[in-house]
Amino acid sequence: MHIHKVKIVMIAILALFVFFFSNDFGLIDVEKTSIITAIAIDYEDSEYVVTAQIAVPEATDTNTENQKAQLSGKGVTVGEAIKDLGDVSGWFPKLSFCNLIILGKSLTDDNVIKAVDYFTKTLRVQDSALIALAEDKAKDLLSLATPLDNISAFALQKIILKNTGFDKDVASSDVKTFCAGYYSISASSYMPLIKIIPAGESQGDKNAGGGTQNSGGMNSGTSAGDQKGDKDNLFDAKTTALFYNGKKTGELDDNLTLTLNAITTHIKGTVLPVKDVADKDGNLSNYLLSVVNNKHSISVVVDENQVVAKIKLDLYCKVSDHTSGNSNYSLSQNTPIPKAVLEKLKNQLKENIEELIETIKQTECDFLKLKEKLYRYNYKFYDKYKDDIFNVIKKEISVTVTGQK
Predict the structure, then answer these.
(1) Domain range list for the chain
(2) 134 within 8 A of 108, measured Cβ to Cβ
(3) According to the model, what pLDDT value does residue 21 have?
(4) CATH homologous superfamily for 272-405?
(5) Which among 138, 125, 66, 73 has a CA at the least distance from the CA of 97?
(6) With 70 as the cut, is the pLDDT of residue 38 above it?
(7) Left, alpha or beta for 282 (phi > 0: left; psi -120 to 50: alpha)?
(8) Cα separation of 318 and 311, whole Å?
(9) Model pTM?
(10) What is the C-alpha radius of gyration for the chain, rounded to an integer number of angstroms?
(11) Per-residue pLDDT reduced to its tens digit, 291-317
């Protein structure tokens, strides 16, 4: 019996030695634990430049933040540039955790699918990886300092892919969706355009100089490279870049991006501003309405004589805030939304939808998939209208905005 106990103790000690020494004395193997969080792709001197942002875990109890590193590789193809990353470093971080791909402006001079296709064909990156376009060089976005996160790729993901229930004001896209749009009948795709808001510059500062109040962006003449260093930069992704046959053909500003989301997705929790509404005394007030629910539909109705795009949007809202001088108007009393506010918001949304259709005609980017709906549901008329659909198409737009009564 005593001999059996000794054997059990010896086996236990041997097992402890195996577990301890097989873990390199408990040290972290950087090559095994480091992961690529984002990839930036630029095109320079007839070569693709792929920059990978790598998160390196810290092996200390006092520092809980991840450290980051960047590596760049070059090649005549994206795959060759990624291979060059391993050749110049001697180790190969995993791509399976890469959740963001940023394309540089230089790629838009040609078909961007040449750079994106690699990630769908090789299956090295998950299809849900977000894809975005930089105003200038993509690699500059990965080297910026931001107060949102120690790793800029994580900060960008927060901006692009907001949690459910928050403002749906970014037209986010992933690798699978972008490529599916490119290879569809419409041959159209879109992705958010990342703009840099330099440290100390607020939204009001950007609009103070006059002009169109588009969202985000750098000061004129300021390059992304000038924003490096210790500055805390913020990002804006409310502008949408439009692509037809893989080439950038236009943009949607923040208002049109929000309207696009309203007629194609659910925007519950999104706030919509309604400004300069006159009350019964002639005083102008501003309102902020929160979307409680939205219903939407887009269809294409065709016959021998015409093609009609029918777009329907129903919103149910409540007041989130207001500047009304009426002392009887209180948020705590759930006062009904004034009819003038509902009417103005309805007209704004209808005008935006009309502008979206006009943008499709100008850019040929069919982000509403009208041509695809023609092909799927009205195939017998497809050959007749496919080449001229955006010139002959008519529109029927129905927008209703209601609130508590």
Answers:
(1) 49-252, 272-405
(2) no
(3) 58
(4) Nutrient germinant receptor protein C, domain 3 (3.30.300.210)
(5) 125
(6) yes
(7) left
(8) 23
(9) 0.80
(10) 26
(11) 999 999 999 999 888 999 999 999 999
